[in-house]
Amino acid sequence: MSSLKNRINDDIKAAMKGGQKARLATLRMISAAIKQREVDERIELTDDQVVAVLDKMCKQRRESIAQFDKAGRDDLSNTEKQELEIIQTFMPAALSDEEIDALVRAAIEKTGASDIKGMGKVMGILKPELQGRADMSVVSTKVRGLLGNA
């Protein structure tokens, strides 16, 4: 069992003992998403694969928050924000803008991409490296900006 899954299970037990209902619900949702992927793919997830699941959950929460804010539903938006905070506690440390820029430039150089047509190759290199450590939509925008100006 991956250490990240162990940490999540330990936190579930702690939340149960501590009577933290909102945190417990979010942790159980995380655990269910991980188990669902394991059952669907008939595998035991590694820490990297767990991070990918968590990253997807974060992205879903960010999209929901934007929609709820647009609709003026602060109650639902606040619930999503709380869930996002809890999910992010299990994510690896985020990279700074400078670190992301350096990795993007290195990937462009490595692939030899000179225009927007090479974006898929560049993103193919960056995604496994940056998964869970950076918002991939921001990374995509940076790549598009650099390749568009090349």
What is the structure about, briefly put?
The chain has 150 residues and is an all-alpha fold. 77% of the residues lie in helices and 0% in strands. It is built from seven helices and no strands.
Account of the protein in words:
The chain has 150 residues and is mainly alpha-helical. The protein has two domains: 3-88, Uncharacterised protein YqeY/AIM41, N-terminal domain (Hypothetical Protein Yqey, Chain: A, domain1, Orthogonal Bundle); 97-148, Arc Repressor Mutant, subunit A (Orthogonal Bundle), CATH 1.10.10.410. The protein contains seven helices and no strands. It has helices at 3-18, 21-41, 47-70, 74-88, 97-111, 119-130, 136-148.
